[in-house]
Amino acid sequence: MEGLVNVKYSLYEEEHLSVRVDQDPGHYVASGGVVPQQWAVANLTCPEAQANKTGYACVSMNSECLAVHSEREYYGYRCTCMAGFDGNPYTISDGCKDVDECNTPGTCNGTCHNTEGGHYCTECPRNTMYDTALKMCTSTKKQNLVLGIAIGISVGFGIILLMSIAILLIRRWKKDIKKKLRRKHFRQNQGLLLEQLISSDENASDNTKIFSLSELEKATNDFDPTRIVGRGGHGMVYKGILSDQRVVAIKKSKVIEQVEISQFINEVAVLSQINHRNIVKLLGCCLETEVPLLVYDFIPNGSLFGILHASTTSSSIFSRDDCLKIAAEAAGALYYLHSAASVSIFHRDVKSTNILLDGNYTAKVSDFGASRLVPIDQTHVVTNIQGTFGYLDPEYYHTGMLNEKSDVYSFGVVLVELLLRKKPIFTSDSGLTQNLSNYFLWEMREKPLAEIVATQVLEEATNEEINDVANLAETCLQLRGEERPTMKQVEMKLQYVRSRRLRSSQVVLKNEGMQPLSSGQSQDTLPLLTTPSGRVDRFNIASQRNQNCYSLEQEFMASATLPR
Q1: Statement: 189-298 belongs to CATH 3.40.30.10
Q2: Which among 220, 323, 339, 398 is least buried, having the fewest CB atoms inside 10 angstroms?
């Protein structure tokens, strides 16, 4: 078709093949086995060929005759399709077909229109441009939109990637800062000292743990406010669940002075050794915060204050037996702290809020945030005034000298709460804000007890029991500490009142494995508790010389129910 034909020569020796056309080697040259050669249909001119209608080779419509010649010699003619057509110009009438130039990229810089044997171009309308991929004019706005979206998505992904990297780096940086800050607080809070104290004491190491902050954050859902179960003067208490599924109370205290940290560590070391059924067990602490966190056993039934004062319905679940039992257990716990522990511990914040109740309504004394340790050979310690109004010992408030009798005064207020079912600071019927202890002492002098105590107490307790507890509370509330009983005397008196009530109700001294008092035994040998008005407790009329003397049987009776 193109005027060239390949010719192959089969000769034994190629060097013998030498075909030349003089002066036109490009048309007819042979050297080697295969050579291209020009060709022609016939040795006729185009007019001669066209004159012979039957022999004319250019049969196809849209074909034309093409003369084939060199510089000096004419070879003949052959056929070719006209411009704008392509195909077979020979033998077939429609062999040369129209070529669609618009299919060729770049044919037009606008809209391409194909015609028979050609094409023409028109410019794209305004605000459009030719899209070579779509082969049509498209809106420049659309293209800009697509381009903008593509650029926006790319930039967006880039920004997101950069932000993700930045966030990861910032988090890692903050994490490193937190680790350094926690290590700093651990050192400042004498963590190394506490570790040494715990490791040197086998009992403490078995029962006490130094928790990491991450453990407690996980246990409290990062100290979620919904986990708060108590608020006090010394901080907040959160309910948490440790990884071993133990339910704990985590106390997050307010800021304390740095000079108190060493004393705090000593207190933790001592409190970790306390194992008394009526004292909330300290499980450990966390020293990785500015103020150390304390971890205690969680006590499910809240505080004595919450049950006494929340509503009439909730307080009515307490019988008089329950009240005596809780008061005796709390008194026993305070007595243990004062004289039975390795060092004396003055609680300094005894109140009904800090007497918790477990699932069996067993009393648990809690919150040692204000407590102070006192060597066994000292009777008091001078401290900054701290406590809760309504429970605060007036003598301690005026002198700053804290001793065991300060806890006795506060416990006396708790006894009055149980009797009157009023808050330590309450609003009277006349609208005046009054102090419960002052109100009680004044009313004791002016009115019969039956007009003072709560209705429920009158319904459940005998006059004798009410008098016993009221007289005991009155002696605890003496202004001078030396005139108050010790916590041991308070506990023994409450245990006696309780055991007598149990006997009168025919409840179970036998079940407790204890023998009742012999009929010949006098009640006169229990502790002598004298009221400020000179009245002598009707159950303590023994002579002064017998005040501190007890028989072995009495001592056993009074303390048998105390866990040690």
Answers
A1: no
A2: 398
